[in-house]
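Problem 12. The chain below contains 55 residues. Write out its predicted structure in token notation.
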Amino acid sequence: MSPQSMSYGVLKECLPFLARRATENKTILEGRGGAVSERIRLGREIYRRLLPFNS
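Solution.
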């Protein structure tokens, strides 16, 4: 479990923080080895493990 932070206060003060976090998350999820490729790898592994039962 990791600690989570939550911004609170006036929107004018919170928006730069939220925009920065959105950019960071987008980079992590779309980058090389990101969530998309991880999901593909997991799907392949699940299919590989279930393949013997499909026959």
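Discussion. Helices lie at 11-30, 35-54. Students who got a different answer should revisit the alignment rule from Section 12.3.
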